[in-house]
Specification:
Helix content is 47%, strand content 15%. 30% of the residues are buried. By secondary structure, it is α/β, with parallel strands linked by helices. Bound molecules: adenosine-5'-diphosphate (2 copies) and zinc ion. The site of zinc ion (ZN) has 8 residues, from loops.
């Protein structure tokens, strides 16, 4: 199974993708995570992407599609994929069609997480992740069971993204509205889009997604 999680920054794409990975053994392909890894490693792609990401703008279509191609090429064709944060433009959606075909994959579902924009700033500014295993948390909505200790791996180190500040979030939301939302009709025409209420609590969102995948 190959699915896309679509939604603005803070909609819950990463949170839900991690849960699907744990439950169904699918692979999460997050272009945001790949780009952050490239920035950290100071690869040529990372050097090019760093400032763009800090501004909250979109990295070039060629760069992100090449990252996805490399991941798909290195993967077993029967491992299910969750595309998280990709595609984000019409050109990327077109590239993805070509990549899926060339890797013998078919897209079953596009799940749109529908959220109230006012809630997103609070979600984003309170977001943090485990520095070791990457599990996502929130200052208010999902704290570790024991303060300062990761539930999943026991690490005591956490990190926050430099672009998770209010000003950058506004740019990221504008980018989403201008460039990403307009790709939905491409998938609606194929009858594969399901809108899920992303304002519900995390467990309810997971159940709603699972029923789409099982349906
Ligand atoms: P995205 O990957 O779409 O940018 P995340 O999954 O990282 O979003 O979620 C953003 C923040 O909001 C995280 O700190 C996460 O813990 C929190 N969050 C995710 N889903 C919900 C939800 N349904 N209700 C409340 N907080 C949520
Ligand atoms: P969020 O989870 O908050 O939606 P991401 O981690 O997906 O954010 O993306 C962080 C940043 O990385 C984006 O603001 C953008 O600069 C860059 N980025 C990630 N994915 C893409 C993509 N598919 N196309 C262009 N830029 C991307
Ligand atoms: Zn951890």
């Amino acid at each position: 199974m190959n699915i896309i999680l679509l939604g603005p920054p803070g909609a819950g794409k990463g949170t839900q993708a991690q849960r699907l990975v744990d439950r169904f053994g699918m692979r999460q392909l997050s272009t945001g995570d790949m780009l952050r890894a490239a920035v950290k490693a100071q690869t040529p792609v990372g050097l090019q992407a760093k400032a763009v990401m800090e501004r909250g703008e979109l990295v070039s279509d060629e760069i992100v599609s090449a990252l996805i191609d490399a991941e798909l090429s290195a993967m077993d064709a029967d491992t299910g994929v969750i595309f998280d944060g990709y595609p984000r433009t019409a050109a990327q959606a077109q590239s993805l069609d070509g990549l899926l075909a060339s890797h013998g994959r078919k897209l079953q579902h596009v799940i749109e997480l529908d959220v109230d924009e006012d809630a997103l700033v609070e979600r984003i500014t309170g977001r943090f992740t485990c520095a070791k295993c990457g599990k996502g948390y929130h200052d208010t909505f999902e704290q570790p069971a024991v303060a300062g200790v990761c539930d999943k791996c026991g690490s005591t180190e956490f990190k926050r993204r430099p672009d998770d500040n209010e000003e950058t979030v506004r740019t990221r939301m504008a980018e989403y509205r201008a460039k990403t939302q307009p790709i939905l009709p491409i998938y609606e025409e194929r009858g594969i889009v399901t809108r899920v209420d992303g304002m519900a609590d995390m467990d309810s969102v997971t159940s709603a997604i699972e029923s789409v995948l099982n349906g």
